[in-house]
Amino acid sequence: MSTEFKPIKEGKVRQVYDIGDSLVIVATDRISAFDNILQNKITDKGAVLTKMSRFWFDYTKDIVPNHMISTDVADMPEFFQTEEFKGKSMKCKKLTMIPVECIVRGFITGSGWESYKKSKTVCGIPLPDGLMESDKLPQPIYTPTTKADLGDHDEHITFEQSVEILDEIFPGKGADYAAAIRDYTIKLYEKCAGYALTKNIIIADTKFEFGLDENGNVVLGDEMLTPDSSRFWPLEGYKPGQPQPSFDKQYVRDFLKKNPQGGSLLPEDVVEKTAAKYREAYELLTGESFMQ
Description:
- This protein is of the alpha+beta class.
- It has helices at residues 45-60, 110-119, 159-169, 174-198, 250-258, 268-286, and strands at 9-10, 14-18, 23-27, 30-33, 36-41, 68-70, 89-92, 96-97, 100-107, 121-122, 125-126, 136-142, 145-146, 201-212, 218-221, 230-234.
- Strands 8, 9, 12, 13, 14, 15 and 16 form a 7-stranded antiparallel β-sheet that branches. The protein has a 5-stranded antiparallel β-sheet with strand order 1-2-3-7-6. It has a two-stranded antiparallel ribbon with strand order 4-5.
- The relative contact order is 0.16.
């Protein structure tokens, strides 16, 4: 009889299980937008997030170590060796997570575009005059946020504020850790965005999360460059001055903006199109069939 495990933490999309010397992180088919969990589930979404993170973790391990151990449920306790968990689960190293979300923007869109229209800045960073919506920025910019609890909103902070936050938690180490996660964020984005362009996909922006291992080394954790954490645009037809079609949950965000009274239940066609977008993003970026 297998041991039964219960999540020690549950986020908007993920469940985290403690299995002793490591963790199992399960990506569910839930979807969130504007910090709310929607009623619908997106078919195959959890598997797409897990497979895509695995691809990127392997691709970037030369830049920074990551927390992935295995995505094969055979390497996990018997409890996880069922269809419910297969394809959606990742066995990971335990880390002390750094409470800063590391956001990098290579193009101006979303809240960054709204801020630029008002002040010619994004998160306090001055940008050149004359930029249009969806323009490529002169160089990627790092715009960290706080890591809010479930139900709360992340807040934009400056790099200097990230140093202060981390110095309170890791006395005397805040500046070093803040600089390390900033530099890793930019390096990861530049390498992966360059690769994505060879697959005719623009990575407009994304976020990373980091933690510390038992020796105090910075390790990449959470998910990586998935449709949940990134904006993916098709290179074909890219045209600044307007919003871009996307391979991510922007389709859901756009629907909710146009239908603010619609509650948290999506129409079936929105669910199906979103699921198809997630699978397409995986196949284009990795060159692998999702179903293999």
